[in-house]
Amino acid sequence: MPAYTAPLEDMRFVVHELLADERLQSLPGNEEFSADVLDAVLEEAARFCASVLQPLNRSGDEQGCLFENGVVRTPDGFKDAYREFAAGGWTGLAADNDYGGQGLPETMDALVNEMLCASNLSFAIYPGLSHGAYRLIRRYASEAQRNAWLPPLVEGRWSGTMCLTEPQCGTDLGLIRTHATPRGDDVFALNGAKCFISAGEHDLTENILHLVLARTPDAPPGTGGLSVFLVPKFTINADGTLGPRNGITCGNIEHKMGLNASATCTLNFDDAQGFLVGGLHQGMRVMFTMMNGARLAVALHGIGIAEAAYQGAVAYARERRQGRALDGPRSPEQAADSILVHPDVRRMLLGMRSQIEGARALSTWVAARYVHAQRNPDAQARDDAHDLVSLLTPILKAYCTDMGSEAANLGVQIYGGHGYIREHGMEQLVRDARVCQIYEGANGVQAMDLVGRKLPAHAGRYLRRFFQPVAAFIADNSDNGDLTEFVAPLSEAFALLQKATRWIAENGTRDPNEAGAAASEYLRLFALVAMAFMWARMARIALASESKNKFYRGKLATARFYMQRVLPQTASLYACIVAGGSSIADFEDEAF
Amino acid sequence: MKRDLYKKVDAVRKQGSIVSSNTSTIPLASLLEEMPESFRRDFLITHFFNPPRYMRLLELVAGPTTREDATAEVRDFCDRALGKGVVVCKDTPGFIGNRIGVYWLQCAALEAMRQGLTVEEADAVAGRPLGIPKTGVFGLLDLVGIDLMPHIMVSMDSLLGADDAMREYFEVPDLVQKMIADGYTGRKGKGGFYRLQRDGGKRVKQAIDLASGEYRDAGKAALASVDAAKSGGVRALMEHPDKGGAYAWRIMAKTLCYAASLVPEIADDIVAVDEAMKLGYNWTQGPFELIDALGAAWFTGRLREQGEPVPELLEKVGEGSFYRIADGRRQHFGTDGAYHDVTRPAGVELLADVKLRAQPLATNGSASLWDVGDGVVCLEFHSKMNAIDTDILEMIGKALAIVASGYKGLVIYNEGTNFSVGANLGLMIFAANTAAWNDIESTVRAGQQAYMALKHAPFPVVGAPSGMALGGGCEVLLHCDAVEAHAETYMGLVEVGVGLIPGWGGCKELLLRWWQDSRRPGGPMPAISKAFETISMAMVSTSAAHARRLRFLRQDDGIVMNRDRVLASAKARVLALADDYAPAQAPQPALPGATAKVALEMAVGGFRRLGKASDYDAVIAGALADVLSGGDTDITETVDEHALLDAERRAFMSLVKRPQTLARVEHMLETGKPLRN
Prior knowledge:
The complex is a heterodimer of chains A (592) and B (677). Chain A is of the alpha+beta class. Chain A has helices spanning 8-18, 35-53, 55-63, 78-87, 106-140, 143-155, 283-319, 343-375, 379-415, 417-420, 426-434, 443-454, 461-477, 484-510, 512-544, 550-566, 569-578, 582-585; strands at residues 66-68, 71-73, 158-163, 179-182, 187-198, 207-215, 226-232, 234-236, 242-245, 248-253, 264-277.
């Protein structure tokens, strides 16, 4: 089993140095979160993850959840771990003080989340969904509802879910059949079946708040007729205590490729009492609050898994001795050199590391922008930040989860046969990472969201929040000779991204199939350039800092690898995009 | 009453002077009862459509005794001096336009009520999808006045034959009678089928419920048939099984058959009918063109299927079509069963006709070059809304080469609704949003170079606009040697509305126009101030005549009343200029630089204090002032065209990078309205 140590030094670098310009502490509500406070939070989270969650990761996978008579039991140790997690205040880390939360900025939530995912992704699913439910209720529920539902959710006594998928509909939510019949006073009776519901039933909390997408009688067809209902597992009395069990039962749990300790449930609604949240037929808009947050959270699943795989692979590469370095023995006293000497092993490790650190920087930047979108007193600044978050959400979700899978596979590769057997826990990472590319909107759907919605929105305004700062950075740093090796490749790749964007804008409006064919490669091109932007900024900071410092030297070296060995992929992606989609569209269906 | 008036007129008029009446329904024969032969010989009907400035149809009805030369003279006068599309009609009730138009209106309104459509649904069907103005049927009734409806019905009743098909739709429904009695006569009254209600501060559009007569908030009609028409055309609309499809079929089958049954009763040929409906009711296709679009055989087949009578003319055309192209000429189906050339009045030349017989000399997605005869090449824009993009700029380059290789000159002309609405803002803002500043700057440069090349070409270039010529569309005209403009030409440098200044030589040209004005008072300031005022206030001419006063047109630029004669005038102008042609030399003004800029900025400051200009308006005005004052110069030096263009480009680039400018562009693209930020 690989050990996991939270990459605190890198996290501190991102928050305090890379994102210093974000000036998060100056925003209302953030005044007391000094660097010291944030560091203490990160350290405590790191301790908890290493000592409590990570040791449960493999046993949880082996044992899995148990379904019996409608009851789901989480693996041994999960209940205690969750109790300790809630007692530590982690369930309300980024929740408002008003509801008993810690009120920390979402950047902290993102970094702590990465740690949770790296140490035990199955476990992280449970509180992750609760936080999504918190955000939705916080924004759309009435004051009375917020006061009744949020404190126990924030406290961790209750948890949340999002119920969208049904057997006949996944991506296409317009096909939803679950229906809600009015029973007066905004109370509805829900009937239908949902499947693939993460944390739909479990023994960690005393109650579960399901946020259910359903159709009301006479609602228009398609997604425009959907509404969101809060359906508690146990009904809630006026005084906040729990009443009798609601008409909602778990039919079974899925047997999956991975994430065995996370309960993926079939739920049956049988006249279950539900409460309308956020207006009739507003379901898609309301649920997107949860989904957008969830997409960013899933990006962290990818980064966390990748970091775990990287740490395991580095440890193994140091100790595993096989063969000799190509230019002569490094450890002549030993029978063989460590495999760390082999260029291909180093290539794999650096590929993982450079993308993990780039993605961490990018996702934390987006989290910081999210904080501005929520808390900046200036309306224009909030809107600008919101634009950037909207633009980069699908990019982060798809790119980071692809990276998570890729890194988990490289982890196995570096372990060789020892990675393929269960004993070392490396193959679990592959299995756990895989679904992240699928849930919360498959990565192909993210690419379509990017080219079909985010690009054309407001005549391309979302793009401005990314492209103009990058262009300004390139212009500002073009005279900095020491930085040329980073800025020049960024500038070159950025020009390709500009051209690809224009190509899609021109050709995609003419023929939507062209945009569809280009979408996935465009998303990847965009992600690589966005990370190059982060790497160039990080390199600038590292260059300006003490060169003897090992951390900064590592940063510069990793930046160099990224620019020389990862970023050039942009050229082939660009070539694919501008080749157009005819070879895809023209292929005869019968010939498949 | 009219007859009394005619007697008075006859007593004082010069012998041989022509008298005409604008009656819309009274037959000529009845007007002339009791009038002497001498009067009858000089009398005819000239029926205009409202509003006469914009509606091009003029129905000309001559009696059996009218002098032929009087008819010809009036016809020519109406065509050339008034710019009318003259359609010769027979002396029958309602002539052509109103006979068919009123039938259509009554039929569409009554069928909507009978078939249970809402007013929004009826207008959504009986409008755009059929090539009919979006006011549809009820919106149009509101516009013309609902109270007119019973009057016309009474008049038609007294004039039409006992078996006329219009009698099927003579009914004036109770709802309409009640609306008229209560003062709901349309837009001129308290409201009509639609009305605007004040709800708090905002105005809410309401529509009447045709069944209950109560108003409710207007909605958007959601009909699958209307969506089907977007890709499938009129036939897809009529074949659609929903109520919109059934309604469309019903009203158009009725109307088209009615029209087909009236030739040759009301006009000698189908061309007159189609022209009348297009020019008088703004249909994009006349009834017979619509039948061709549906397929005459399909249309007849469906009538038969439903047991509807098939008019004789439709039987005659059979599997054929009402129009065809033969030997590059458009021909129409005559009542004699043969095809005849569609003729144009002498001196009318249309690019549409050229296209029937020739291939373009060059073409791309946004523009084409045509040989329009007599050694003249026509540059046609055909991009979306004729917006100017890099394809058009490229085609200008091609035009320069092709014309120089053996033609006499170039006409810039097209037959779109608008000459050009300006540069393609969508592409520009996308480039700005992706920080592709070099792309933007090179497009600005390319436009400047293309327009300069037109201006200094070794052959004459004549612009021939109609409708809107804004921004880059105005600038290209400013660079022409001469312009022959349709009277309804709306020119303006409107860039400040989207946070920019003219960057393709508009500032330069307007400044030089005022500079060269012979009546300009002394010193450079009057010219600078005039150009500054015109551009900073984004003034748009309300006509070609007004464009002259704003100096977008020169005093000797032509104004052509008839839209169909613009091309011929422009060609003639090219040929007149082509002899001994030498490109004009641009003046090199001595401009005051900073001192002028300060003066202009002080004026802007005044507007700002009065609340007439926003802070950002002042920023734009500052950039404009910088260009027009000559920039970094003083009165002892002269400034050439290139220096002015460089200044324009710099100012343009500085503005296009500002978020307030991009917010204005975005707002314009999303709402079609300027943003004042």
